[in-house]
Design brief:
The structure is a single chain. The chain is of the alpha/beta class. The protein has a single domain, classed as Metallo-beta-lactamase, Chain A (4-Layer Sandwich), CATH 3.60.15.10. The chain is about 20% helix and about 30% strand. A four-stranded antiparallel beta sheet has the order 4-5-6-7, with no helix packed on it.
């Protein structure tokens, strides 16, 4: 099992939920850089895979996760703004591709144009 964590806002990175998932399923958490430190400190032993925008993670035979830029930001408190990356994901399988935006704004539409490519 794989869990995708797009960024560290509380509505996308709930540590209590990750603790429960670790206990019952022991999933691999794929997340942008910096979020792994937050998760590791709160959920010891969680399997983590942290990546930069543009990275590809092969999670099983025929399934890959692409970490893509999003028009957003990160912070869990007043003093850690933009200390961890935020991202969307493209899940690539033999059956096709699925785009999970995470949280993103339209901005100038660049993220959506890049996804189409």
């Amino acid at each position: 099992d794989v869990v995708l964590v797009s960024h560290n806002h509380y509505d996308h990175l709930d540590l209590a939920t990750l603790r429960q998932l670790k206990e019952t399923h022991d999933p691999l958490v794929v997340t942008p850089l910096g979020n792994d430190a937050i998760i590791a400190a709160a959920v010891p032993g969680m399997r983590l895979s942290a990546h930069d925008w543009g990275d590809r993670v092969d999670v099983s035979d025929g399934t890959a996760i692409h970490i893509e830029p999003a028009h957003h930001w990160s912070a869990r408190g007043a003093r850690d703004r933009r200390m961890a990356l935020w991202a969307g994901f493209v899940i690539e399988t033999a059956g096709g591709k699925t785009y999970f935006a995470g949280d993103t704004g339209f901005h100038d539409g660049i993220n959506y144009r890049l996804m189409a490519e």
